[in-house]
Amino acid sequence: xxxxxxxxxxGLLLLIIAAVVVVVALNAxxxxxxxxxxxxxxxxxxxxxxxxxxxxxxDCMACHTARGGKELAGGRAIQTPFGAIYxxxxxxxxxxxxxxxxxxDFWQALHNGKSKDGSLLYPAFPYTNYTKVTRSDADAMFxxxxxxxxxxxxNRQHDLRFPYNNRFLLYGWRALYFxxxxxxxxxxxSVEWNxxxxxxxxxxxxxxxxxxxxxxxxxxxxxDLGGGFIPVVNWYAPSLTSDQEIGLGDWDIxxxxxxxxxxxxxxxxxxxxxxxxxxxxxxxxxxxxxRAMAVYLKSLPRQKEASEPKERASPDxxxxxxxxxxxxxxNHCIDCHQASGKGQWPAYPPLASNHAIxxxxxxxxxxxxxxxxxxxxxxxxxxPYGMPPYGPALNDSExxxxxxxxxxxxxxxxxxxxxxxxxxxxxVPLD
Length: 431
Description:
Structural class: mainly alpha
Helix content: 40-55%
Number of helices: 19
Distance between the termini: 45 Å
Radius of gyration: 24 Å
Strand content: 5-15%
């Protein structure tokens, strides 16, 4: 038995080596391709200002600033199913940051996912999206990063489990899931549409969360923006192409724009990880850029809607849960969200006809009831109302009941939630 196991392991090793050799050959053209030339700059101050805008639009601060740490000095742990990846120092310190980098080095990182020394970067850094960024925008971002205060802070080694801590495996991953290439305008679309597509697909890296990932962390282009469970964080980023979820096809452009820039709209409120994106990044984009993103998102082809999931519980069980849920709703929710479920915009989002409530995956609704819901503070909504956490006051069965009631009232329709589903997320870390 031991001999057989050794042969199997040896065979797998040979397959891996063979695959790496083939993949290296496939990537040879990428390694040898010369970088695009740096752009000639007429006004350095203007370039730095533009770079600051783009860095904020790409939400770089979110990953490259540790809690309580210096801005862009790195050190924040990005938790993945494969272990922790620590974001590097982006300040212009020559020893620990990017002070010794050139514009070509920075372009290689964004466009090809390679560090200054040629080593492959882990795709927790979303170069699969950033590759679409133009050279002129990359140079502007680099110019801004070179202008911020230098911070001497050594980069931490990633804490990845075997075999994911072997970078040579990235050659195989890249062959499967990465093709470098800047965004190309769709000539049949408007200038506004193309600007929105450029921001959503590139700097905004929306697909990093809103697309399902497989066991290797790769995404399927055919399911782009079709919704995905965010590993470790344990939130569900809803589909932007399915009207059964949060698909925006029947939204007014103004409502999409309001949600992205202000965090609130008559159709809903952003919570969880998306609240951080709006608060730290999207609210700082120009009205024109946010509208362009809305125009593009609204135009996305609709997914073929799946049949509604069947109720798993018996009629008696459904009736019992709904009765308990209604009682809890009257005690804790009705003052803000109203007996009609229509809420009071902009303070309290509507629950009636809110597809974010009735998604097949109830995780977001469960977590909001357990942990509370907090919209971002934005220029247009500087003092947002928040929802208190009810996890300490309600047990798993009670949380399941009130979520089930909300998912099946005022015209909403979705399977009821079990106490076991609630318990699964009760102890999930908030950050």
